Amino acid sequence: MSENQQIVKLNVATPVKVYRLSVYRWNKESNKKEAFCYYVHYLESVVKGDPEEAEKHKEEINDIFFHDLSLNAVTLARKNGSAAKIFSTVDELKPTMKVRGQEFDWKLKDIRISGQAVPERFQRIAREINKAGINFDACYIAEPEEKPFPAPSTRPNRDPVLLGVIGRWLVEIGRWG
C-alpha cells in the first residue's frame, strides 16, 4: 500500500489520518468540500453502527482524494514541461490492461515488464512528482491499438504514453515517439 493510500485510511480511532486529510493541499476547493461532506456522512454511519454505509463513504472519500492528488500530479508535470492530463480510470490494476479511447484502444503494460525505454525527460518529471510527496501506485506504458476509423489523416498522435496510477486514476506524465 502506498503512502498516499495510508493517509486516506479513515478510522475514528486514528484522528491523525483525518488531520492529514485536512492539511493536505487540495488542488480544487470543491474536492475538499465534497470529501469533508462524505467524511461527515462517514462519521454518522459509524455512530449509527452501519459499517457498510461507512465503507461506502470511505470509498467516496478515497476516490475524491486520489482524483485531487492526480490533479496535483498533472499540475506538477505541466510545470516541468509536460502536456500532462488525467488519461483515464481503471477499476483493478493488472500487469497488462486495455483502456478504451475515442480514437484508439490503449494497451497498457506495467513499466517493469514493458521492455520500453522511457525518455529521461519523463523519468525526471516522475521523480519531481515523487519528490513532492505524490507516490504512484504503479506506472504503465500505454500504446495505441488502431480502430478502423477515422481516416488516418484525422488521427491524433499515436505515440507511447507514460502513465502513473494514483488510486483508480491514470495520470499521463508524457508521450513520445
Any idea what the shape is? Answer: globular
SS field, number of helical segments: 6
Strand order of the largest sheet: 1-6-5-4-3-2
Q: Please, what is the average pLDDT?
A: 83
What does the model show?
The chain is an alpha+beta fold and 177 residues long. The chain is built from six helices and six strands; from the N terminus they run H-H-H-H-E-E-E-H-H-E-E-E. It has a six-stranded antiparallel β-sheet with strand order 1-6-5-4-3-2.
Features:
177 residues, single chain, 45% helix, alpha+beta, 6 helices, 2 domains, six-stranded antiparallel β-sheet
List the topology elements.
Blueprint: H1 3-8, H2 15-23, H3 29-48, H4 51-79, E1 85-89, E2 96-100, E3 104-110, H5 111-114, H6 120-131, E4 138-146, E5 161-166, E6 169-175
Antiparallel strand pairs: 1-6, 2-3, 3-4, 4-5, 5-6
Give a quick summary of the entry:
The chain has six helices and six strands, in the order ααααβββααβββ.
